[in-house]
Amino acid sequence: MTLSQLIAFSILTPAVGALAVAIVGRNNDEGNNARDWTTVVATLITFGFVVQLVGPVMDGARPELVLFEVLEGVPIAFQVEPLGMLFALVAAGLWIPTSVYAFGYMRGHHEHHQTRFFICFAVAIFAALGIAFSANLLTLFLFYEILTFSTYPLVTHEGTDKAMKAGRIYLGVLVFTSVALLLFGVLWTYQATGTLDFKPGGILAGKVDGIEAMVLLGLFAFGTGKAALMPFHKWLPNAMVAPTPVSALLHAVAVVKAGVFTVLKVIVYIFGIDFLADGGYAVWLCYVAGFTLLSSSVIALKKDNLKARLAYSTISQLAYIVLGAALATEAGILGGGMHIVMHAMGKITLFFCAGAIIVFAHKTEISTMDGLARRMPITMTAFFLASLSIIGLPPMGGSWSKWFLAMGAVDAGQAVFAGVLMISSLLSIAYLMPVVGRAFFLPPKPWVDDHGHAHDAQTERKEADWKCTVPLSLTALGCVVLFFYAEPIHHLLLPIVQGGAP
Predict the structure, then answer these.
(1) What phi and psi, each to the nearest 5 degrees, are found at residue 447?
(2) Cβ within 8 Å of residue 79, ≥6 positions away
(3) Relative to the CA of 300, which of 34, 195, 326, 386 has its CA 20 to 30 Å away?
(4) How many CA within 13 A on the CB side of residue 259?
(5) Integer distance in angstroms from the first to the last C-alpha of the chain?
(6) Domain residues of the chain, as ranges?
(7) Element (H, E) at 464
(8) pLDDT tens, 405-455?
(9) 0.90 exceeded by the pTM?
(10) Residue 64: beta bridge partners?
(11) Mean pLDDT confidence for 211-221
């Protein structure tokens, strides 16, 4: 199989999987084992195709696949470069545990329209991989929009007034920013350069400068609403009304990572880090990211609802990646790229744990989780490990990305942002460790089962279904593994800051 064929199969397999899920699940929406196995097969095949591209990319190959030309010199085309390879591995790899987790969650929560759920989930992964492998801005924009509309039914899955309102906010913010700002930035780039291709060193040097360059950067940064930079962040906490596997998709696997990936890729391959650093055009974006980073952490402190607290934590962590990109230094870019992986592994674990607590302990508010670790020791241990990674403490993967981000700030002569990162880590301790402390060290409160019977939480243990506990255990372990195996990620990303072809 050629590398071009691998690209095609990697992107198309989730779409074919969505069609297969629709066929096998049409007559039995709940408890459909054939549908679940079809989903698992699609996840494994997709990941298998994606993994086969890693070796050639790390050896310097940049596989391409050109479909057809839309404008002169602007085709729908794909090219696998290191940053896209990393994002594809995150999306395809985490689709596997998320699907298994969703089987346990959706059945345990007695959700309706489960077939529709898994169809939309597969289409979202199809879109995420299209974004990851995009060779130009037009292709990226196309798949970016597919991702938005394919995840709308997931956000509104429950069909309640609250869910429909959240869906309107979701579509409103993301479509407005992409059409009014991002698309404008894409057209402006084409008018200025005559191309939309991603190229090493960027394509804007000598074409735009001064205020024009800063405005264009603003169009891309704020137009990528999925990056959740303030003030275009409200869609994200509102989307928490969706089932927890959707929250995992939104916050770890595809949606927000597509946003920060886009910002990072545009800065590296459209603007070029040397162009931004020499002109100082991205300094203002550093301050926007720093403000988003700290203010969202402060808001998270005030949230008693666990998913809401994690949502604002995500906004903060995404700003880390935007900050790394805006610093326009080698260490900052590497730190931002690495944080895509480190945050994905930590945050998906936290949301897995939150969903298990909701379904099997019927608790959503942190203030009600006293002594919960005695009932759910596996879940709360995983929550603790993932929290350490989000905070950035060794031996967790998150410590490496934060280290490179801090070094990037120093290299850029912006040491103030190294201080911002440290303050944010302290705030992360303040909003995550109370959850752990309550669960492990406070006396448990009686709990009520599905039949309304009170139980003594000190003597009874009720972990989540294995379909939930196994995925969250594996991703928690992944947070540790990433600490010891961060070097391959660093090695994969290194060419993007050393002039390697995209």
Answers:
(1) -125, 160
(2) 62, 63, 64, 65, 133, 134, 135, 198, 502
(3) 326
(4) 32
(5) 22
(6) 3-497
(7) none
(8) 999 999 999 999 999 999 999 999 999 999 999 999 998 876 565 555 666
(9) yes
(10) 79
(11) 96
